[in-house]
Design brief:
By secondary structure, the chain is an alpha+beta fold. About 30% of the residues lie in helices and about 25% in strands. The longest helix is centred in the middle third of the chain and has 31 residues.
């Protein structure tokens, strides 16, 4: 068999014999000619076959082969995977890429059932049931090409700046942040293990180990029964941690540079196709991003006529949307850092400002949705233990973590960011289900 050509390569190949492989998207079975739209992972191409409907009893082998090919094409079901060898022809009149292939031979790798279980207007839950079919759409394929470019760009940013990539364990002997939202499992009979909510403790361990600057892109798990458009029980977390910082502002500066760099890479590679398929332009954010202290943000939201119902002092989802609208109107920006959170609504390991008593932390909002929490960490073990006690945590259960800081630790900080939320907002999708390869939520464990 000839070497397979990808559809995206056909425009650059000379006219002549080519072999392509993919799945059937549509078949137009006309009386005198048959058209098949074949799609592979890079695009779609039109295949054409002059139809042979009848032959005489004394027909030669070529006529019999032509009839068999016509009958095979007539019976093709959408989704059938096949390989075609034929004559590549360049013709600007062909709307699909300016090329077409006249079929010489066709080999079916795997036939599809004729009845497709989902359609374009199927509900998201129905499409998630048949995700492998849903992902064949060009639009959905693009989502994961964008994801690949986004992750590669972030890795490039970090590696060019001498960061170390780590892979922290996802099985833990104790909770990583709190006793809430934990998945527990039996571990060799008499032990209980927990799925990591975040790599937080191990990111900090790397700072104490002298790594200086690290990052990780990996799964995280939350036993959160939420059914919102932005929550999942398993998600991909983008994390970074750096040593020798003066405040959380050093972390914020690194993150805004990272986002600008990654968004530019996506725009450069996929901008035109995103405009075509998603109807929006990727906006590369300018830096610095606006920064607004939480107390000021609450006042701004109130001045816009919305009363935040939460009693803990944090913004609720509508409050986040209101402050984002203010930032867009005032600064023309899609991102905003909300800073200076009260310790009551922050993790025990967030450092507190000695003058204000507020934490040296931030949330990053993108289009009115929180995508990141970042902070300077408390690196003084005595202070850390007292802050854990204030949160009602048992220091004995965290003793392995406190050990990290008993032998010296540099001032450090970092952030954790949800990959799916970034993609959802970048592409204007309504739910992280649409941008997650296989979504996991309270009622979804399959496929």
């Amino acid at each position: 068999m000839s070497e397979r050509a990808l559809v995206e390569q056909l425009k650059t190949l000379p006219a002549g014999t080519v072999t392509v492989s993919g799945w059937v998207e549509t078949v137009r079975d006309q009386k005198k000619v048959q058209f098949v739209i074949l799609r592979d992972e890079t695009g779609a191409v039109q295949l054409v076959n002059p139809a042979t409907r009848e032959i005489g009893e004394d027909a030669d082998d070529a006529a019999k082969a032509a009839l068999a090919l016509t009958e095979t094409i007539s019976a093709l079901a959408t989704g059938t995977f096949l390989t075609v060898t034929g004559e590549l022809k360049h013709d600007e009149r062909v709307k699909l890429g300016g090329v077409e292939i006249k079929i010489h031979s066709l080999d079916i790798a795997a036939a599809a059932n004729p009845e497709t279980p989902i359609a374009a207007d199927s509900s998201v839950d129905k499409r998630m049931d048949w995700r492998f079919l849903d992902l064949r759409q060009r639009r959905n394929n693009l989502i994961f090409r964008v994801q690949t470019t986004l992750e590669h760009a972030m890795r490039t940013y970090w590696i060019e700046r001498d960061y170390i990539e780590v892979h922290s364990p996802k099985l833990m002997a104790s909770p990583s942040e709190s006793n809430a939202e934990l998945f527990s499992l039996e571990y060799f009979g008499d032990q209980t293990a927990y799925l990591a909510q975040s790599p937080q403790f191990f990111k900090q361990m790397a700072q104490v180990a002298g790594f200086g600057k690290i990052f990780e892109i990996a799964p995280a798990f939350r036993a959160d029964p939420s059914f919102t458009s932005r929550h999942a029980t398993e998600f991909t977390s983008i994390d970074a941690e750096i040593s020798w910082i003066d405040s959380h502002e050093d972390v914020a500066r690194m993150q805004e540079e990272l986002i600008q760099f990654a968004f530019q890479a996506v725009k450069d590679k996929h901008g035109a196709e995103i405009e075509e398929l998603f109807g929006l332009e990727v906006q590369v954010p300018s830096i610095p991003f606006p920064r607004i202290p939480l107390a000021e943000a609450r006042d701004i939201v109130a001045s816009r006529g919305y009363e935040i119902p939460r009693t803990d002092g944090d913004l609720d989802p509508e409050g986040e949307r209101q402050i984002a609208a203010h930032v867009q109107e005032t600064y023309g920006h899609q991102f905003v850092f909300i800073t200076d959170y009260h310790p009551e609504i922050r993790a025990f390991y967030h450092m507190r400002d000695e003058e204000t008593g507020l934490t040296k932390s931030y949330d990053l909002l993108f289009k009115g949705v929180e995508i990141t929490t970042g902070a300077q960490r408390e690196h003084r073990v005595d202070v850390l233990i007292e802050q854990a006690k204030e949160k009602g945590l048992d220091p004995e259960h965290l003793d392995f973590y406190f050990d990290f800081f008993r032998f010296g630790a540099p001032p450090h900080g970092g952030f954790g960011m949800g990959l799916a939320r970034v993609l959802m907002l970048m592409l204007g999708e309504s739910s992280i289900r649409e941008v997650t390869y296989l979504f996991r939520g309270p009622t979804r464990l399959a496929p």
